[in-house]
Structures are given as structure tokens and as C-alpha cells.
Amino acid sequence: SCFGYPLSIFFIIINEFCERFSYYGMRAVLVLYFKYFLQWDDNLSTAIYHTFVALCYLTPILGALIADSWLGKFKTIVSLSVVYTIGQAIMSVSSINDLTDHNQDGSPDNVQVHIALSMIGLILIALGTGGIKPCVSAFGGDQFEDDQEKQRSRFFSIFYLSINAGSLLSTVITPILRAQECGIHSKQRCYPLAFGVPAALMAVSLIVFVIGSRMYKKVQPQGNIMIEVFKCVGFAMKNRFRHRSKEFPKREHWLDWASEKYDKRLIAQTKMVLKVLFLYIPLPMFWALFDQQGSRWTLQATTMDGNFGAIQIQPDQMQTVNPILIVIMVPVVDAVVYPLIKKCKINFTPLRKMTVGMFLASLAFVAAALLQVQIDKTLPVFPAAGQSQIKVINLGTDDAVVQFEPQLQNVNVMSMESTGYMTFETSQLQSLNVTFGDKTTNKVVKLTGRDRHTLEVKNTMTGIVAELLPDEVTSKPEEGNNLIRFINNLPYTVNVTMGDVSFENLMSLAASNYSLFPGGRKDKIMVSSSSVSCSVTPKGFGFGSAYTIVIHVCTGDTLNVTYSEDIPPNTVHMAWQIPQYFILTCAEVVFSITGLEFSYSQAPSNMKAVLQAGWLLTVAVGNIIVLIVAEASKLSEQWAEYVLFAALLLAVCIIFAVMAYFYTYVDPNEIEAQLDEEEKKKDKKDQDVYEKQAEADTRM
Known about the structure:
- The protein is an alpha+beta fold.
- The protein folds into three domains: 1-222, Up-down Bundle (Growth Hormone, Chain: A), CATH 1.20.1250.20; 263-378 and 571-682, Growth Hormone, Chain: A, CATH 1.20.1250.20; 387-567, no CATH class.
- The chain is built from 17 helices and 20 strands.
- The strands form six sheets. The chain has a four-stranded mixed sheet, with no helix packed on it. The chain has a four-stranded antiparallel sheet with strand order 7-6-9-10, with no helix packed on it.
- The longest helix has 32 residues, at 111-142.
- The chain is elongated and about 140 Å long.
């Protein structure tokens, strides 16, 4: 022992910290891996993410059955941890871009291989993490003697602290790893490292757990109470169906039909458990909203500005707000909020707390919807089918007038300036007239639709130049990256580089292709030719923008450029997500913690595992609800989907409030004491009968 604690528990705590780091670290970057690496859209990414989470919360029932009925906790943890580690390793391998990038163009040649490996990895992870979830904490509790109740209680506090520490650190670190660039043939977001580190931590978790093997107290499997409960319920239903005729007298409760086979104690305990499980029916809707932090809310953050001054926050790092606030809010609510409510003489029962939690979660999604409306206002409008967009850049020293024929629109463009994009019906726009003073030129145009173009115009000594350049950008850059291209307004060819990206030789009045740059950076622009060389540090491009940089003057060390904004940067700051995270965290504190406390207070001591399985099942069903609602609603606007989820939870909240109003609290200890008393009386009566019979036999 160490400080009065079994030495073995330290291996278990380290094991749990590493496992939670592994799980939450992988999960933090998962939805962005689906979207940006596998190139799935938002809806499919969200659907697969929630399917995986649901599976993670369904498999604990399987793990508990294996541990209690077959292998025991130790062997179950070891065997499923091996499965878990293999799954994490496969996920890391599946994210290696160079695995199928045979032509070395920076994108996988066979995405199906990556998808197949990813799905195999996720299934193994779900089996592993779910399978060991109900075993590790219980195995830790087994290490203590009956007279170490105080130490056992402190162990569980430290155990749950290790869970929060692992999840918090991993959701900070793995997004940073993902944001790095790595690769053999081409540099990409480093998903192999983001998945590889959690895989390594899971391997460490397994090794540490096995090292402590000789110190563990290993309780042999003694059967699972859940199986007995299922058998009791099944027999009662079958027996009731057999005796459905009116000639059989009714019984007080339908479970009493199991009395022919099962003892009164098990039936009474099962009644108490089913009474609580009935209240669980509305609860999955809360988890349907809560678990969207890792999917919809993370995707929402990708369209926002993550610049926090000295540091750049990645979209998937915003999830860390929840565990940070949990650490702050739990003691505040327990020490300040609840006592104040009690002083106001308000009977804030556990079920009322849970109702308030559901209402707060609904409110958090209203906040998310309002934020989404503001984000949508900043997003550019791209051309629809049958439409084209044109912007004009005047490269000359004189003002220009551009007429879009036949008589669609006229626009004046000042010297060295540009317009915004103008939208035209492709079938109507036929030609362009460009006028500089008394000079005019006409250009016939034929556009295909759903495209953007830049019209560069310049008045030269030899006439008017009017060139229509394809922009080839019809969506906002993702992950906060920026797209940059150059137009050479010098009379000679130059070589252009920005940071470590070369745009190579750019002829006079020619435009380069767009190149992708990480958001928030200010890479130096270098322009050189055989006779001149100059540079400039550009302005900040923000996050998620696209710019055309026009090179006007390069003399000595002076480089004069202008910036034409093709797509505006993200302007809504990620900090605006904090209110919705705060409200949802408050909801979690009064709902989740209270829910577990209420469940344990209303169930017999040997039925805690059944309620734990039921609680985890509500989380799984909640994630399945996300799939159903998102698929069935077919809403095109994300804010509308947030409102829909908020409305559904509010409706469920009202139903739960009604159910809670009619619920009668019970004391399981009191009921079990009554059962003990009845059993003692029955045993005494049986003993008296036995003694009388024995006395009669003696007289004979």
C-alpha cells in the first residue's frame, strides 16, 4: 500500500487518464477529418460522427456482460484494450495521405481505401472504449477492503479527475497536432500525428495496466444482475400473456406475474429500477443536443475567426471550453447556487433540476441559431445555376466605365481600384463595352454559369486591354485558410514568391492561379526579375478569405501592391461561441450530475449497474436521434436546424416536467429493510413449523 491506498490503484488511474486522452483526442478532430480529408459534406460527417458516438455508448452493456459472466474485469479490460489500440493505430494509418497518393498531387488516389480503414478503426475503437467503460472504475473499487470506504470514495474522486484531465489536455493538444503540416510527397494537415498520439497513449495505457497485473485483486465473475432483470421482466410478460383471460384475477403490478419463478426481493427491486428507467425515456433528447458540440458546433467554428491575439485557436479546440467550464461551474453551483435557492425556500428537487437542465440546453441551441444567423450574413453569395459573377479591376492610371450589354448595368471604376462582384443571368449577358475617355473597346462574352470572373482593364499606349480572367473559386476556403493570387501590372515578366510558395514567372498583365495559405499568417512577398528585386510584408488576410494582389511598382527595395478582396475573411469571432458553451455547460451540471445522483438514490444497491447501462443507453439513443432528425428535416439553413432541435427539446422538457410531477420518491433502503423483515418473519415461521414437526415426529 501507499499512503493507505492499494498500490494497484495508481496503475488504474494512469490507465484511465491515458485512455480518456486517447478517446477524446481522437474524437476532437474526427468530424474535421471526415470533412477535409475524406471530403464528406457536413451532413454525412455529422451522421457518421454521431453513429460512432452512439456505438461507443451501446457497447458498454456488452462489456459488462462479458466481464461479469465470462472473463472477469481484468481479462476484459486487457483483451478489449488490445482491440482498442489496434483500432487507434488503424485510424492513424488511414489518415496517411501518401498511402494512396501515387501521382503525388497532394490528394488520395483511392479514397475508398481510406474510408474502409477508417470505418474498421472506428468500429474497433467503439468496441474497445465502450467495452472497458463499465469495467475500469468497478475494477478500481474492487481493490479496496470493506474497511477502506473513505479511501474508496477518494479514489473515485481522483478517478473522475483523471478522466477530466485526460479529456481536457487531449482536446487542446490534438487540434494543434492536426494543424501542423506533414507528408512525404506533399504537405497536408497532419491527421496521422493527431490520430497517432492518441494511439500511442492507448498503447501506454495498456502497458501500464498490464505492469500492475500482480498487484491487482481479481474478483471472479459472479454473473450479471442485468441478465436476471431481463429474465424476470421477460418471464413476467410471457406469463401475463398466457393468463390474459378474464378468468384469471388481476395482480397489483404486471411484474407480479413473475412471482411463480422469481423471489419477491428481485421483483420488488426490478419494480424500483423500471420506475426510474421509465423516467429515462425523454432523456435522449438532451444528449442529442449536447453531443453536437463535437459535430455541428465544431463545423460552425470553421466559419469563424479564431484569432485570439497571440494565439490562433483551431475550430476543434473550442470544445475545450466545456471541460474548463465544468471544473469552474461544479463547485460554484454546489457551493453558491444551490444554497441560495435553498435560502429562498424553493424545493429544488433532483427532477426539477433535470428539467431546468433540459430547458437550458434548449436555450443554448437558440443562442447557436442566433450566432449562425450572424455568420450567414457575412458569407459571400456565389452564383447559382444560370448565373455568373464579374468584378472589374482597373490596372490603368485613368478612370474607366464598363457597360454590360445589352443595357444591363454600367459601372465606373477609379484608377487602381476594383469593384465587388456583380451577378448576371448568363443567358442575358452578351458583351462588354470598356471606355477610357474617348477610347472604347467591345468584348463579346460567353459564360457557362455558376462561375466567377475578374475583368482586368487598362488603357495602354497601343489601346485598351480588357481581359476576362476565370476565378475558379466558387466556395469559401475551409479551415480558415486563405487563397492568394497575383496579377502582374508591370511591363515585364517577374518571378513572384510568397513565403515558401513560388508563383514562378508571371508575364505582364497575366494572373497566377490561386494558392492556399494558412490563415492569420503574413508571409513576405518577393518580386524579382533580371534587373530588379523588391519585397513587402503584406497586410493581414484574416481567416477564410481570398485576395487578388496586383503588383504595380517595383523599384529599389520598394514594392507597391494593391489588394482586391475576392472573398471576405471570417469576421464573426469564435469567442461568440462561448455564451452557448456556457449555457450548455450549466445545463450539463444540473442535468447530468443530478441525473446520476437521482438514479443511484432511487435504485437498490445491487441494481446500480442496470441504471448505469440505462443511462449510457440514453446517450446512444440521443446520438441516433441526431441522425434521424437531421435526415428527416431536410433543412437547408443551419440556423433552422438549431431552432428545430431547441423546439424538440423544449417539447420533451414539458413532457418530462409532467412525468416528474407525478413521480413519487422512494427510499430503496427502507423497502429493502421491509423485505429483510418479511424474510426474517418467514424464516422464523418456517423454523417454528419445522420444530413443531420435529417434536411431533419425536413423540411418535
